Amino acid sequence: MSKINKKNNFTYSVSGDNLEDDFTSSIDIDKQMYEEDIRGSIAHTQMLAKQQIITKKDKEKIISGLLAIKKEILSNKFEWKSSLEDIHMNIESRLYDHIGEIAGKLHTARSRNDQVATDVRMWTKKICVQIISKITELQSSFVKIAEKNIDTILPGYTHMQKGQPISLAHHFLAYYEMLKRDLNRFQQVYSSADVMILGSGALSGVNYPVDREWLAKELDFSKISNNSMDGVSDRDFIVEFINACSLVMTHLSRFSEEIIIWSSEEFQFIKISDKFSTGSSMMPQKRNPDYAELVRGKIGSVFGSLFGMYTILKGLPLTYNRDLQEDKKHLFESAATTIKCLDVTDGIIQNIKINKDTMLSSAKNSFILATDIADYLVKKGIPFRESYVIISNLTKELTKKNIMISELTINDYKKYSQYFEEDILNLSLETAIESKNSIGGTAKKIVEKALNQAKKEIKITTDQYEKN
Ligand code: ARG
Fold first, then answer.
1. Helices 444-467 and 112-147: crossing angle, nearest 10°?
2. Which of 30, 246, 317, 377 is most solvent-facing, going by the fewest CB within 10 Å?
3. Is residue 11 predicted with pLDDT exceeding 90?
4. What is the Å distance from ligand 1's center to 70 Cα?
5. Is 146 within 8 Å of 154 (Cβ atoms)?
């Protein structure tokens, strides 16, 4: 058995001075919610006074204390204490320093259980709006680059084998569509989070005549929870949020994978700007697509958070259990990673260089028109299954002889089928693309329509969120 080398004995320090506090405190994580916590407390105080649960004088003192604390936090003068469990306790404790015993009235008709549930919903709504606007920016970048590449031709792939010619605009607009679904998902998450919980108390409601409707209005919630027990323990919206993050990250990772392949020496379809690539420490000739690789890799932690969150909730009895404190780590980290990856992807696209010629010659040096030739024979009356076999034989023979389709004369064609006429020679990458004019196809006029539609949709979202 090998012995531990005492000389190199290294202890990884995971706890601070006090294991108990360190283990139970979440302040390092939930201090991000200070704004929501103070806003919620101010609204709660106003409601307590309005309902004559506390006096107007007390209300004013409490609110001025809370505003003073907010200033301290904003100017980095607030001393965060991990001996106090969380953001709520840190702020409440500091309130005593500012206004004395009256601070104790803030927590009337409220538990940290309904407080934290309300705070985290406010935070989630705020971040949903931010992510929606980032997604819209990224969609705009896809639309802009698509507009510049309506006439750029490249092979479209299935199974990573060249399949049919497409316009690069059509390819980029596929990502626009994915992001549109992502955007809708974050709108749905916003709506799930948009439920006011205060007034649920610890679990069963409160012994005071609270005005929950007023609180909801004051805190910009469109709904209030129907059941106090569900209210304090529901974290479904966090699962939904991380799921929405996971899907947008999935789309970003697919795009990353494509541009990593496209920027390889084998493909050379694009060049990723130096800003978004790095050199190798050993191989001087290399530029590595690290940023795209990191976007592709960072998805791991978001998926991890999704399962982390499901695992926390699974089997949890009603109502609040301390397990729920672990929710914010997953929520905050997923949000931060998603926002960063949206920004990086946007930066990559805005600075990408497209090698149109390489894309075109890749499409030319292939049998990418085979389906169109088969369809040509179908239009002349041959059943598709039959024309498929004819063209399959044709491509096999040409491959053997190392001849491209574009080199064929009409007589060559006629050897395969008498139905071929002179007009087969008009078939080109361009005409093949133009004839894909069914709704959603790659034909120029369809792509232009899609572009206009996308621009309209982006404007609608932008206007909607600017108003808020
Ligand atoms: N720090 C707690 C959390 O984030 C706040 C709620 C605490 N409630 C309690 N009963 N300990 O979940």
1. 150
2. 317
3. no
4. 21
5. no
**Is the C-beta atom of 327 inside 6 A of ligand 1?**
no
Active site annotation includes 64: no
Task: Give the pLDDT mean for 197-201.
Answer: 98
H or E segment at 444?
helix 444-467
Cβ 141 vs Cβ 192: under 8 Å: no
pTM value? 0.94
How high is the pLDDT of residue 270? 98
Asked if the model's pLDDT at residue 280 lies above 80, the reply is no
As a whole number of angstroms, the distance between CA 319 and CA 227 comes to 11
**Residue 113 Cα to ligand 1 middle (Å):** 6
Q: Is the CB of 85 under 6 A from ligand 1?
A: yes
Q: Respond yes or no: is residue 387 known to be catalytic.
A: no
Taking residue 6's Cβ as centre, other Cβ atoms within 10 Å add up to 6
Assess whether the C-beta atom of 461 lies below 6 angstroms from ligand 1: no
Residue 285, pLDDT score: 78
Quick check: 15 pLDDT over 80?
Answer: no
What is the whole-number distance in angstroms between the Cα of residue 335 and the centre of ligand 1?
A: 21
Region 280-291: mean pLDDT is 83
414: part of which helix (H) or strand (E)?
helix 410-416
8 A C-beta contact, residue 27 and residue 87: yes
Model confidence at 284, in pLDDT bands (50, 70, 90)? confident
Q: pLDDT value at position 282?
A: 78
What burial class does residue 202 get, using C-beta atoms within 10 Å of its C-beta: 0-12 exposed, 13-18 middle, 19+ buried? middle
Domains annotated on the chain, with CATH? 2-108 (1.10.275.10), 113-362 (1.20.200.10), 370-427 (1.10.40.30)
Read off the pLDDT of residues 208-257 as tens digits, 9 standing for 90 and up.
999 999 999 999 999 999 999 999 999 999 999 999 999 999 999 999 99
Query: What is the average per-residue pLDDT within 90-99?
Result: 98
Residues 6 or more apart in contact with residue 393 via CB below 8 angstroms: 416
Tokens of 385: 């299954």
Cα distances (angstroms) measured from residue 114 to each of 38, 234, 392, 438: 14, 11, 67, 53
